[in-house]
Design goal:
single chain; about 550 residues; mainly alpha; 21 helices; about 70% helix; disordered C terminus
Length: about 550
C-alpha cells in the first residue's frame, strides 16, 4: 500500500528555511565585506548622467581652489600660536610628505575607478560595504566641517574689510555663540555668524546650477588668490625679522602638543585639513572628459603647487609677526598691519585675495560632498533623493541643497578651532583607508589594468598610513571623542537603514525569494506527482474489500 503526500503550503518548512537563510545573511558578517566590482564601477562611469566638461587644467585649478585658502589665510596663524610657533614650517613639510604618499594612492584609484564617490568608492571596491559606509560617513564629517571652517575664516576677512571701510559689523552677528575652551563648553554671548552662513548660501546656489558655471568662477578666484599670495611673499620678505624665528621650535610647556616636537606633530595634524583639496578633485571624475589621464595630473599637480606656497607663506608670516600673536581669524591681514604703514598698501589686495581664495575652497568642498552622497544613494545606503540629478544642470541638486543647509548651520554656531580639528581627523582617516585599499587591491587583483600606478608599492602606501596615523594620534583627545560620537551615529544609521536598503542586500533578498519560490514549486510538483501515483490504478485492480474501505481507513493504511 502506498502513502499519500499532502502538498506543502507557502508557510511550510522550505519557505521558512529560505527566509531564515536570508535573515542569517543580514545578521552575519559576510555581507559587511561584500565588494563592488571594478567592472560595475566602469559601467557606472560610462553613463551620461553628468556633463563631461573638465580637462586636466580645470582639475588643477579645482585642486588649487580647494587647497589654497584656509591653510594660508586662516589655520596657519592658529596652529603657529597654539602648537608649533615658527616650527609650523616643519608641520607643513610633514603634512606635505603624508599628502604626497596619499596623493599617489588617490591618483591610482581615481584613474582606475573614474566615478564620483572618492574614498567611499575606493573602499567599496577593495574593503567591502561596511568599510565603504564608514569612510563615506567620515567624508560627510570632513566636507561639511571643512566648508564651515573656511566660511568662519571668510567671515573674519569680510568683517575686517568692512572695518577698513568704516563700517562696524555687530560682533554678536559675526561670531559663534558656542566655544570649547580650557574650562569646557561655554556660551560666548554672540547670536550667530551671519557672514559665514551668507557665503555658504551663495555658493550653494552657484554649485547647484552646474559644474560649468562653478568651473568658471573657481578659475577666476584661483588666479586672484595666487597673484595676491605672490604679492604678499614678494613684499613681506623685506619685513621679516629673523629673531622671530628663534627659537624655531619653542620649548614644550609640559603637555603633549603644546610646542616642542609634539607641538609640531599636532600642528601638522591640524594643517592636514588644508590639503583636503585633492580629495575634492577625485569627486569630479564623472564630469571629466578623460579621467584616466587627467585625474592624476589634477591631483598631484595641485598638491605640489599648494605645498610650495604653504611653506613659503609659513616662513614669511612667522618672520613678520611673533608667533604667539597669530591666534586671530585673519593672520595674513594681521601681519600686514603689524608690519606698519610701509606694507599697508597691499592690505586691500591681500584681503580681496583672501576672500576669493576662501570662497573657492568653500565652493569646491561643497561640490565634493553632494557627489559622495549621490554615490552612496546609488548603492542604496542613503535615501534615493540624494541621487536625484537635475535634468538641466546635471547636478545632484537635492544633495547640494541639503549639504549647503547643514554647512550653514555648522558655520553659524561653532568656532574655527573645533571645526578645523574635526576636519583634520576625518581627512587623515580617509587617507589611511585609501592607502590601505591600494595595498589590498594590489594583492587581490594584481593583474588589473591600471592607467596610473602608485610607485614603490608597498612603501608609499605604508608611508601614507604611518604619516596619517601619527598625525591622527597627535590630535587632542577631545577631537577623538567627537569622532567616535560621530561614527557611532553613522553606525546606527547604517544598521537601521543603509544595510537593509542597500542595493547589494536587495539583490540578495531577491535571490533568496526566487530560491524560495523555486523550492516551493518543486515541492508542489513532487507532492502532486506522489498524490497522482497513489490515487491512480488500472480498472479492476481493487478488491471488493479494499473498495469498501473508508477514506480514513485508506489514509491510515
Amino acid at each position: 500500500m502506498m502513502m499519500t503526500t499532502t502538498p506543502l503550503s507557502p508557510q511550510s518548512r522550505p519557505v521558512q528555511s529560505g527566509l531564515r537563510a536570508w535573515w542569517t545573511r543580514i545578521k552575519s558578517i559576510e555581507g559587511l565585506t561584500d565588494t563592488k566590482s571594478i567592472e560595475g564601477f566602469h559601467a557606472e562611469a560610462n553613463t551620461e548622467t553628468f556633463h563631461r566638461v573638465l580637462g586636466a587644467k580645470d582639475l588643477v585649478f579645482f585642486g588649487l581652489g580647494a587647497i589654497i585658502g584656509a591653510g594660508i589665510f586662516v589655520i596657519t596663524g592658529h596652529t603657529a600660536a597654539e602648537y608649533a610657533g615658527p616650527g609650523i614650517v616643519l608641520s607643513f613639510v610633514i603634512s606635505g610628505c603624508g599628502c604626497a604618499f596619499a596623493g599617489l594612492c588617490y591618483a591610482e584609484f581615481a584613474a582606475l575607478i573614474p566615478v564620483m564617490g572618492s574614498a567611499y568608492t575606493y573602499a567599496y571596491a577593495s574593503l567591502g560595504q561596511f568599510a565603504a559606509w564608514v569612510i563615506g560617513w567620515d567624508l560627510m564629517l570632513e566636507y561639511l566641517f571643512s566648508a564651515a571652517t573656511v566660511a568662519v575664516g571668510w567671515s573674519g576677512y569680510f568683517v575686517s574689510i568692512l572695518n577698513d571701510m568704516g563700517i562696524t559689523f555687530p560682533a554678536a552677528l559675526c561670531n559663534a555663540p558656542f566655544d570649547d575652551g580650557v574650562d569646557g563648553w561655554k556660551i560666548t554671548g554672540s547670536v550667530v555668524n551671519v557672514p559665514a552662513m551668507f557665503i555658504i548660501a551663495v555658493l550653494t546656489i552657484l554649485m547647484a546650477r552646474g559644474v560649468h558655471h562653478s568651473n568658471t568662477v573657481n578659475t577666476v578666484m584661483v588666479c586672484v588668490k595666487v597673484v595676491v599670495i605672490a604679492l604678499f611673499l614678494c613684499a613681506g620678505v623685506f619685513f621679516v625679522q629673523s629673531e622671530n624665528w628663534h627659537p624655531f621650535i619653542p620649548e614644550n610647556t609640559g603637555s603633549f602638543g603644546s610646542f616642542g616636537f609634539s607641538g609640531v606633530m599636532r600642528a601638522s595634524g591640524v594643517l592636514f585639513f588644508a590639503y583636503i583639496g585633492f580629495d575634492s578633485v577625485s569627486c569630479m571624475a564623472q564630469e571629466t572628459r578623460n579621467p584616466q589621464r587627467d585625474m592624476p595630473i589634477g591631483i598631484l599637480g595641485s598638491l605640489v603647487i599648494s605645498s610650495t606656497l604653504y611653506i613659503l607663506v609659513g616662513l614669511v608670516l612667522t618672520g613678520i609677526v611673533p608667533y604667539h600673536l597669530l591666534s586671530v581669524p585673519a593672520p595674513v591681514a594681521f601681519a600686514i598691519d603689524y608690519a606698519g604703514s610701509q606694507l599697508r598698501w597691499i592690505r586691500p589686495f591681500v584681503k580681496l585675495g583672501a576672500l576669493a581664495g576662501l570662497s573657492s575652497v568653500i565652493l569646491v568642498t561643497l561640490m565634493g560632498q553632494p557627489r559622495i552622497l549621490a554615490s552612496m544613494a546609488n548603492d542604496g545606503l542613503l535615501p534615493p533623493l540624494f541621487a536625484q540629478v537635475h535634468t538641466t544642470y546635471k547636478t545632484p541638486y537635492k544633495a547640494s541643497i541639503i549639504t549647503g543647509a547643514c554647512a550653514m548651520v555648522i558655520a553659524g554656531l561653532f568656532p574655527i578651532g573645533i571645526l578645523g580639528e574635526l576636519v583634520s581627523i576625518g581627512t587623515l582617516f580617509a587617507f589611511i583607508i585609501v592607502c590601505a585599499s591600494v595595498l589590498l587591491l594590489r594583492k587581490t587583483r594584481p593583474n588589473l589594468e591600471r592607467p596610473f600606478r602608485t610607485p614603490w608599492v608597498p612603501y608609499v602606501p605604508i608611508g601614507g598610513i604611518l604619516f596619517a596615523g601619527a598625525q591622527m594620534f597627535s590630535l587632542p583627545p577631545s577631537t577623538w571623542v567627537r569622532l567616535i560620537i560621530w561614527m557611532a551615529i553613522g553606525l546606527a544609521i547604517y544598521f537601521y537603514y543603509g544595510r537593509t536598503n542597500s542595493l547589494a542586500m536587495r539583490r540578495a533578498a531577491t535571490a533568496a525569494e526566487i530560491e524560495v519560490e523555486l523550492t516551493n514549486d518543486n515541492t508542489r510538483l513532487i507532492a502532486l506527482t506522489d498524490t497522482s501515483s497513489s490515487s491512480w490504478a488500472p480498472s479492476g485492480s481493487l478488491s471488493p474489500s479494499s473498495a469498501s474501505e473508508s477514506p480514513a481507513a485508506r489514509s491510515h493504511t
